Amino acid sequence: MVESNSESEFDSYYASAHVLLTSMERRDGELEKTLKKFGDMRKNFASYCIAAIPGNRGLLGNANSEQNHSSALAYLNDGVKGKNYYCQHLTTLIKDLLHREQWKRNKTNALIFKLNQELSIEKARLSMAPATDTNTDLITAADKLNNNSYQRYKGSRNRADAELCVSSDICPLTQETVIKVSSVKHPDAPPRIFHSVTDRCKCHGRLKEDDMCAHEIKANGGFQISFFKTCHLKRECVEGSLSGWAPPTTRPIDEIIGYEAVSTPALTVPQSEQEDGTDFLVGTPEDGVVNKHENAAALPMDCFPEKTGKCKPLDTHAVKTVLS
User: Fold this and answer.
1) How is 114-139 classified by DSSP, letter by letter?
2) Residue 77: which region, alpha, beta or left (left: phi > 0; alpha: psi -120 to 50)?
3) pTM of the model
4) For 170, phi and psi rounded to 5 degrees?
5) What pLDDT was estimated at residue 307?
6) Which of 179, 271, 284, 285 has most Cβ atoms within 10 angstroms of its Cβ?
7) Which one-letter DSSP state was computed for residue 238?
8) Residue 16: exposed, middle, or buried by beta-carbon count in 10 A (0-12, 13-18, 19+)?
9) Residue 119 to residues 105, 126, 132, 141: CA-CA distances in angstroms?
10) How many whole angstroms separate alpha carbon 273 and alpha carbon 295?
């Protein structure tokens, strides 16, 4: 059931498992209950459900997190994989993880530089080729996308030119004009329907990387930057967290309520009430008894530390000290 590629395939396996459990001589109610719960949670693990999530990259579950965790453990254990012998102090752990991040950034920056050089060569080649619609579109894509995203777009563009055709039709239900993208190699296959050029395709290729597939390229007539995410765009270096955290100049709640812009008038006490000072004494004998008007006028708003259960990130000075 985990590797089911369609809903019908999942239902077939589920029905077979249910028949197997109910046909046992001594039925196990807990096991049948577990099977039903397993079937109800199919969206969390079934291959066909995960494949429908945009940007799944063909991976199941938390593969990205597991890979990053494994890489961190291997670095902390001097390249040893599968076992953990690291048992340093928490401060040493933070220092070592920051050094790992710096090492990964340098390694990734070198790779980005290499891929950008390959992309520059590709742009130079396209500029010397005939100025066809496809070449002009690829040059536009090469100016915006990183090398990996460009290579996928180039393959999809070539497929759109060679294997797909586009036409307009009237939807019989809504009487609206729709865009139909059909396959030339497989004319019997159902076409992809787009109600507008902003509609996104639901094919597995588009959902896997969450960029433009061949059907969208054909429907839109070429490259559309709005169909790509930030992770697909070109960059010169890694934008990581080694620069440290800079605290905000004002607290968010102050900006929301406009505290800095409000002037609080000085507190005045009527003359008739000043004669009896006991009315304005607050507190307990343990904490100390104070005059509440004097206390309210004297204490600033930020005199007490902010109470929060969240851990604050390292500031810029602390990160530079560790990496120096």
Assistant:
1) HHHHHHHHHHHHHHHS---HHHHHHH
2) alpha
3) 0.67
4) -105, 125
5) 53
6) 179
7) -
8) exposed
9) 21, 11, 19, 11
10) 17
Q: Which residues contact 6 (CB under 8 A, 6 or more apart)?
A: 48
Helix (H, G, I), strand (E, B) or coil at 315: strand
**How many whole angstroms separate alpha carbon 194 and alpha carbon 218?**
11
Spatial contact of 146 and 233, defined as CB atoms under 8 Å apart: yes
Mean pLDDT of the region 172-197: 88
Write out pLDDT tens, residues 260-310.
554 545 545 455 544 454 444 444 444 444 444 444 444 454 544 455 555
Q: Which two tokens stand for residue 159?
A: 């497929």
259's CB contacts (< 8 A; 6+ apart) are: 253, 301
Pairing between β-strand 290-291 and β-strand 281-282 as defined by DSSP bridges:
antiparallel
Residue 84 near residue 116 (C-beta atoms within 8 A): no
Q: Give 209-219 pLDDT, tens digit per residue.
A: 999 999 999 99
**Tokens representing 240?**
């990581």
Q: Which residues contact 298 (CB under 8 A, 6 or more apart)?
A: none
pLDDT tens-digit series, residues 34-66: 989 988 888 888 888 888 888 877 776 666 666
Q: What count of Cα atoms within 13 Å lies in the side-chain half-sphere of residue 4?
A: 18
Copy the structure tokens of residue 301: 């708003």
Average pLDDT across the chain, whole number? 80
What CA–CA distance (Å, rounded) separates 217 from 165?
11
In the chain, pLDDT over 90 holds for what percent of residues? 34
DSSP-based three-state secondary structure for 11: helix
Residues in contact with 219: Cβ distance below 8 Å, sequence separation at least 6, in sequence order = 166, 179, 181, 192, 194, 197, 199, 201
